Amino acid sequence: MRSLLLATRNPGKVREITNILADSGWSFSSLQEFPSVETPAETGAIYAENAILKARFYALATGMCALADDSGFEVEALAGAPGVYSARYAGANASDADRRAFLLGELVKTPDTNRRARFIAAVAISDANGSVLNVSEGICEGTIISSPRGHGGFGYDPLFVPDGFNETFAELPEDIKNRISHRALALLKTRKYLNTSA
Predict the structure, then answer these.
(1) Is 70 part of the annotated catalytic residue set?
(2) What is the mean pLDDT of the chain?
(3) DSSP one-letter code for 36
(4) CA–CA dist 25, 62 (Å, integer)
(5) What is the pLDDT of residues 28-54, one digit of tens each?
(6) How many CB atoms lie within 10 A of CB 150?
């Protein structure tokens, strides 16, 4: 069985990715097993560039085939912000709660009452030599609410209600989120690639 490094230390993200890729014929490890490996600067202008940059960096640093993702939250009333800066939107050391509070504060400042938003994800796989093997993308459209709801998920999940649902990503059962989320949609495409290359 081929081994794939999941280039994240976020336990929620590791669980989400392994659940979706479980039947791909690959085994998984994560960056939690490589505490000395540093984090690369995310200098890409788009999600796919950052995903590729991270996949290559971690593959070369560990000598393993690596999967990395980059995702962002885009709010129409904020002209698509925070976008590729979603993780750094409220500052380098901000918590998820800090980022949500900052985003809501920015929304209050705009006269635009439009609450459309979307999550976008890109997933890239690099081989141990830094060659990109696959890139997949997924988008989930919805609306942003005025205060967080729910205790599941992470990041901006408690603020986002996907189209066709009344619950936020943080309130939806994991099995539903793992079918409809931006990351899930990108990973389902990734799984098709992994199934053919295990």
Answers:
(1) yes
(2) 94
(3) T
(4) 21
(5) 999 999 999 999 988 999 999 999 999
(6) 15
